[in-house]
C-alpha cells in the first residue's frame, strides 16, 4: 500500500489511511490548528437543529455566528443553489449575470442608497472590509493618511481588515500591518471630534453593535455624532454591518433601527457578509452616492469569485425569504421575547441582555461564560462566549419563541453547572 503522505497517493489511499481514526483525530492531523480544538464534529442540520457524529442533537442558537439566517436545509436555499447550479454557477467578472445585477439593485434599495451608488461583491466579511480599506485610501490620498477604528472592533483577519481590528493578540503576530490606523475609545464623542478636527482622516470605520467585543451597541448619540462629525470634516463613515446586517437586528441593517433623532444615519460605505448568503460565502461593499462609488475605478480592485451567479442567486433567495416570511418582524419580536424571558428569571448572575433583534449578549456577573457555553453544549445548545462575561446568541431568524424558551428555562441550571469547578472543560 502506498503511503498517503506521498505526492502520488490516491484518494482511496487517503481514505484507507484514515480508516479507524475518528473525524476529530483526522481533523487534528489534517488541518492547520488556527481554530483550536473543535467542540464537536457536526454531520447534519435541519431547521434550527444540528447533529454531531455521535447522534447528539443541538438547538443552534449561534447560526454559524450570525450566518444561517434561514437555519439549515431551508428549501429556498436548496432550491436556489440547485436551480442556479443547473444553469450558471460561475463566470468570470469579464461577464455580467442577471442574479448579480438583481442582487446589487436590491441591496441598494434596501440600504436606501441614493442614485449613483454601487456595490462590489466579495466572498467574506474580511474581503468586504479590505475593499472598504482601499476605498478609504483612495479617498484619503496624501492629504488624509489617517484611518480611525474603534477599540473593541473586529473587522476580519486579512491584513487590511486586521489593521482596523483592535485586539492585540490578533494583530501583533503579523506586524507590520498596513499603517495609518488609530483606535479611539468607542462612545467618546470628544475624542472623536478632536481626532477628526485636523481634517486629515480618510475614514472612520465602526460596527453599530460590536459583535466580537461581546455584543456591545454603540450608543445612538455616539452614532449620531459619528455621522455628523464625519460629514462636517469630509471624512468617510464606513459601517461594518457584516454581523449586524441582513435583518439580524430586526432591520435590514442595524443603523436603520437606531433612533437617528431626525438625522440620516446612512453611511458613506457599508460592508456585509455572514447572513447575506445564509451559509453560502458572499460579501459586499456598498458605496453610497456617485462620489464614493467613483473612488474605485476599473482595474483598481477585483476578485475571481465575488458576485458569481450562484452566490448572488442564494443571497436573493435569502433576502426574498426574509421579506416573504416576515423575518424582520420575527427578529424584532423574538429579540424582545428573549430579553423579557431572561429578565423574568430574575437571576442575579445575569447582569443584562445587550444587543438588538436576534443578536444578543447575555452579560454575566462573573467571568464564567466559557464554562457556561460548555455546559450549554453538553445540554444540547450551541452558544458562544465572545468574552469571559458574555454569552452570545445569534440564532437563525426562523427560530420560534418556544424554542428560545427551552434555552431560557435551562439557563439557571446551566449557570449552576458553570459555577461548579467539576463542570466539563472550557471551550
Ligand atoms: C463585524 C465583523 N466584520 C468582519 C468580520 C469578518 O468576516 P469574515 O469572517 O467573513 O471574514 C466579522 C466576523 O466575525 C465581523 O463580525
Describe the structure.
Helices cover 38% and strands 17% of the residues. By secondary structure, it is an alpha/beta fold. A hairpin with a 5-residue loop joins strand 8 and strand 9. It binds pyridoxal-5'-phosphate. The site of pyridoxal-5'-phosphate (PLP) has 15 residues, from helix 6. The site of pyridoxal-5'-phosphate has 15 residues, from helix 6.
Quickly list its features.
four-stranded mixed β-sheet; 17 strands; Aspartate Aminotransferase, domain 1; single chain; alpha/beta; 427 residues
Major β-sheet profile: 7 strands, mixed
Widest sheet: strand order? 4-12-11-10-7-5-6
Number of strands: 17
Q: What fraction of residues sit in β-strands? A: 15-25%
Discrete helix count: 15
Mean pLDDT: 95
Helix content: 25-40%
- What small-molecule ligands were found? pyridoxal-5'-phosphate
CATH hierarchy, class of the largest domain: Alpha Beta
Structural category is: alpha/beta
The CATH level-2 architecture of the largest domain is identified as 3-Layer(aba) Sandwich
- Rg for CA atoms: 22 Å
CATH topology of the largest domain: Aspartate Aminotransferase, domain 2
Distance between the termini: 39 Å
Tell me the CATH superfamily of the largest domain: Type I PLP-dependent aspartate aminotransferase-like (Major domain)
Number of domains: 2
Rough shape?
globular
Low-confidence stretches: none
Amino acid at each position: 500500500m502506498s503511503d498517503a503522505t506521498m505526492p502520488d497517493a490516491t484518494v482511496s489511499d487517503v481514505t484507507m489511511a484514515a480508516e479507524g481514526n475518528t473525524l476529530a483525530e483526522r481533523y487534528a492531523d489534517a488541518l492547520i490548528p488556527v481554530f483550536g480544538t473543535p467542540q464537536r464534529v457536526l454531520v447534519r442540520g435541519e431547521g434550527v437543529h444540528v447533529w454531531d457524529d455521535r447522534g447528539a442533537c443541538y438547538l443552534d442558537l449561534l447560526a454559524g455566528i450570525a450566518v444561517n439566517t434561514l437555519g439549515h436545509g431551508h428549501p429556498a436555499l436548496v432550491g436556489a443553489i440547485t436551480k442556479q447550479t443547473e444553469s450558471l454557477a460561475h463566470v468570470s467578472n469579464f461577464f455580467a449575470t442577471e442574479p448579480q445585477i438583481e442582487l446589487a439593485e436590491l441591496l441598494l434599495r434596501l440600504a436606501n442608497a441614493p442614485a449613483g451608488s454601487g456595490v462590489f461583491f466579495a466572498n467574506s466579511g474580511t474581503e468586504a472590509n479590505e475593499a472598504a480599506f482601499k476605498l478609504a485610501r483612495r479617498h484619503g490620498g496624501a492629504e488624509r493618511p489617517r484611518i480611525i477604528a474603534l477599540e473593541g472592533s473586529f473587522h476580519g483577519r486579512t491584513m487590511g481588515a486586521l489593521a482596523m481590528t483592535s485586539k492585540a493578540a490578533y494583530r501583533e503576530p503579523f506586524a507590520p500591518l498596513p499603517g495609518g490606523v488609530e483606535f479611539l475609545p468607542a462612545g467618546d464623542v470628544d475624542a472623536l471630534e478632536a481626532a477628526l478636527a485636523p481634517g486629515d482622516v480618510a475614514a472612520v470605520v465602526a460596527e453599530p453593535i460590536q459583535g466580537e467585543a461581546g455584543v456591545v451597541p454603540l450608543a445612538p448619540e455616539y452614532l449620531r455624532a459619528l455621522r455628523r462629525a464625519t460629514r462636517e470634516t469630509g471624512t468617510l463613515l464606513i459601517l461594518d454591518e457584516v454581523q449586524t446586517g441582513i435583518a439580524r437586528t430586526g432591520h435590514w441593517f442595524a443603523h436603520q433601527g437606531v433612533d437617528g433623532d431626525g438625522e440620516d444615519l446612512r453611511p458613506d460605505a457599508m460592508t456585509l457578509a455572514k447572513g447575506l448568503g445564509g451559509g453560502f460565502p458572499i460579501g459586499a461593499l456598498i458605496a453610497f452616492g456617485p462620489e464614493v462609488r467613483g473612488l474605485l475605478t476599473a482595474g483598481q480592485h477585483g476578485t475571481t469569485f465575488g458576485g458569481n451567479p450562484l452566490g448572488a442567486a442564494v443571497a436573493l433567495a435569502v433576502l426574498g425569504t426574509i421579506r416573504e416570511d416576515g423575518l424582520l418582524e420575527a427578529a424584532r419580536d423574538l429579540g424582545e421575547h428573549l430579553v423579557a424571558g431572561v429578565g423574568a428569571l430574575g437571576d442575579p448572575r445575569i447582569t443584562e441582555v445587550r444587543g438588538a433583534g436576534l443578536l444578543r449578549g447575555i452579560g454575566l456577573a462573573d467571568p464564567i461564560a466559557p464554562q457556561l457555553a460548555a455546559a450549554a453544549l453538553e445540554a444540547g445548545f450551541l452558544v458562544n462566549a465572545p468574552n469571559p462575561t458574555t454569552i452570545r446568541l445569534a440564532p437563525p431568524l426562523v427560530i420560534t419563541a418556544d424554542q428560545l424558551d427551552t434555552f431560557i428555562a435551562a439557563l439557571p441550571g446551566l449557570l449552576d453547572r458553570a459555577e461548579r469547578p467539576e463542570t466539563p472543560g472550557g471551550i
